Amino acid sequence: MPDFEQVKSNVALQVNVYDSQEACVQLLGQRGKKLISTNPAKTIIPLQLVITNNSKTSWKLYEAFISLPFVSSEMVFKRLKYNTIARTLGLLGVGVLATSVVLGTCETLAVYACLGDAALVAMLGITGIAATNGLFIWSVGVMAVEGATSLRANKIMKADLHENMLADCVKIEPGHEAQVVVFVREQLLKNFSITLIDREDRELSFNIDLFREEN
User: Fold this and answer.
1) Residue 44 class from Cβ within 10 Å (0-12 exposed, 13-18 middle, 19+ buried)?
2) Distance between CA 30 and CA 105 in Å, rounded?
3) 132-186 residue pLDDT tens
4) Phi, psi of 17 (to 5 degrees)
5) What is the DSSP-derived secondary structure letter of residue 117?
6) C-beta separation of 204 from 198 below 8 A
7) What architecture is the 4-70+166-208 domain classified under in CATH?
8) CB contact at 8 A, 81 and 152
9) Do β-strands 192-197 and 177-185 pair in parallel, antiparallel, or remain unpaired?
10) Would you give the DSSP letter of residue 132?
11) Can you give the residue ranges of every domain in the chain?
12) What are phi and psi of 43, to 5 degrees?
């Protein structure tokens, strides 16, 4: 069920609020839970806007015509991205500590570096690893794989954010639907309005009441 829905002049608007870690994971994958903090000042709430145009008029939605202060895509990406330096240094440290207790030889080592829901898998084949250096060399190998896949995951994530976030303007033609996501600081989330503009600069406004008081 949407958190808000309304139909005006054959244009339907739905607003979905993702204000928990579980909800953010549904929208953004496992990294999404990093948007939710115990500190409301640090929590970033995704809002999904779904606009279905069943009218005969083309409408445009401009970022400036949504009465909320948004968090930029760069800020959201900074919160969600993989920290490649921390990951590789951590793996290197594990290799150094465990080297002295490794016994036996490793003919072939296949390393799968999976980064959560990103489903980016890389395989590294290493042959003839000496016993005492086994895990250390493994760690250096994983360090390279983890760094590469983390960078790729970050690149895909950044592109996906830019594609799905409202960037200045989106056009909704008759018979079409637009889905965009905006991000708002929890402490700044409030009832707000959305105004669509047609070719003749006529306006179609929705007042979104997310905090309806119950009698």
Assistant:
1) buried
2) 36
3) 333 333 334 444 444 557 777 777 777 776 666 666 789 999 999 999 889 999 9
4) -105, 125
5) G
6) yes
7) Sandwich (2.60)
8) no
9) unpaired
10) T
11) 4-70+166-208, 84-158
12) -75, 135
